[in-house]
Amino acid sequence: MVYRGQLIEPEAISGEKWKDIEASSQKQIFDMTNIIRHKYNLPILKWDDETSEVGLHA
After folding, report:
1. Are 18 and 26 in contact (CB under 8 A)?
2. Record's superkingdom (predicted)?
3. Relative to the CA of 48, which of 4, 17, 23, 31 has its CA 20 to 30 Å away?
4. Is residue 5 a part of any domain in this protein?
5. Is residue 45 a contact partner of residue 34, using CB atoms and an 8 Å limit?
């Protein structure tokens, strides 16, 4: 397959925007973890900001 159109250059993402993207990704992974835990009848985890900060630097 060949694309013959003009490619669009993506916009640069600011540091602040990357922080938002990373935070959203963290929450999404956390939610998926709880879905899997629910499937296996395990207790649901609660989000903790302090713990999430530790996880960022691990």
Report:
1. no
2. Bacteria
3. 17
4. no
5. yes
Structural domain range at position 37: 15-56
Residues in Cβ contact with 5 at an 8 Å cutoff, skipping those fewer than 6 apart = none
Report if residue 36 sits inside a domain. Answer: yes
Q: Considering the domain boundaries, does residue 1 fall inside one?
A: no
The domain tally of the chain equals 1
Q: Give the containing element (helix H, strand E) for 54.
A: helix 49-56
Q: Is the pLDDT of residue 58 over 80?
A: no
pLDDT per position as a tens digit, 14-53: 999 999 999 899 999 999 999 999 999 999 999 998 888 7
